[in-house]
Amino acid sequence: MRIEKTFTLVTEDASAFVADAFGIESGWENKVLELDLPDELPQIVLITGESGCGKSTLLRELAAESIINIPKKPLCEWADTEEEALRLLSAVGLNDASLFCLRYEALSDSQQARARMYSVLVSKTKTLVVDEFLSTLDRETAQALAYSFQKLIRREGLKLLAATAHHDLANFLRPDLLVFGKSFPSRWEVTTPKYIVASPFIAPALQIKVFIDKVTGRTPTGGYLDGCIFNGKLEYRKSRLAELHYKGKYLGGASEYLFATYNGREVGVLVGAKTRRWTQENGGMRIARVVVHPSYRGCGIGQTLIRKFLRMHEIDRNPVETTAAMARFNPVFAKAGMVPSGESIVKPPKGLQETLVPLGFSLIKWYSRNYCTEWASSSKHRAALSVFAKDLNSRFCPGGDRSLRKSDTPKPIQEERTKVAILDNAEIAGRLLWAVRPHTMARFVSKV
Prior knowledge:
Mean pLDDT: 84
Structural class: alpha/beta
Number of helices: 15
Strand order of the largest sheet: 8-9-10-11-12-14-13
Strand content: 15-25%
Low-confidence stretches: 399-407
Radius of gyration: 28 Å
Number of strands: 14
Number of domains: 2
Distance between the termini: 54 Å
CATH superfamily of the largest domain: Gcn5-related N-acetyltransferase (GNAT)
Order of helices and strands: EHEEHHHEHEHEEEHEEEHEHEHHHHHHE
């Protein structure tokens, strides 16, 4: 289709003074657009170029800019059901549990950009028309969002028509049709780009460093074996990115750490821990944490870390598993090659509720880790909880070194160690109490 647009000076806007000085009078024309486009536009079209070339004018000639509705309620209530809301929030990269109950105005600029895309999905809009596409964001964040959005748009079968002055987005938004304008006078180039690299965010741009603690298991008396190396744990403790995980930063029993950096910036962390069956032959590993920088979600970094971890354990045929609440809504584990293995339903130890409620424990607030820790600040409450040390033991110190067989560490010693920890430390007691709250998680396993 032929697109032509000329602005003509009309009589009522003409100035006698200007006409006399410059010869510009009624009927003077300024041609802004003159180009040919396909009769049917492809799925993703990007209009970019120099300021003043007519990008916004061209966009308006093609379609009206989309009106995006922003509900005045928490994010988790935008969709028809909260489960659907969490699935869509995860799809746009707003998969921090701490964000689900926030409103739009409480989000950062980049999070608001993701929330607008979330609103588009909720409204089931099929064609999105956006001027000044991601123009308010810093360049690295805009590039990451452009790449993640184009993946989402293709996966959901949407169409995008976007205009921006930032030329750098073309390699990340990966349009099927690129319209580039030059200004003064306006002239246009229309191309169908070809992309050599599958993803601009994966190798060689993405670097992954692996730390493996040689020993993380404890001795029967509760200490650590001689020669323990905690390089990975030390690096993990220094990581600010790890603080974003909704369960908190620290966890016990971890032994393998994968750190991903992009352009020298830490953008992803995976923590691998021994399973509770580690003391058995081929007890396997579990993925305990996967955290991706909020600006880079949807760019394939989480999948890359998981695949790397799976390959590390394919050699020894170590099975890998993970259980996570977020896995119910985020398909990252399936995309990385793991297979679903039902749900993991966590039930409190028998008799725990009946013991704690008379002491003032609120079952309604059990979901709150802060509440559990606050409740466990009382020595009387910790004493009541310590009665269940046998049931909580595996959560106190999961895994261990394979050289420590079950027969080498008598259960009474393990349970006594857990009991002492509960009695002495409110934070540990609160964490264990919170860990056994009634909840459901998805479980995935490797194909090994």
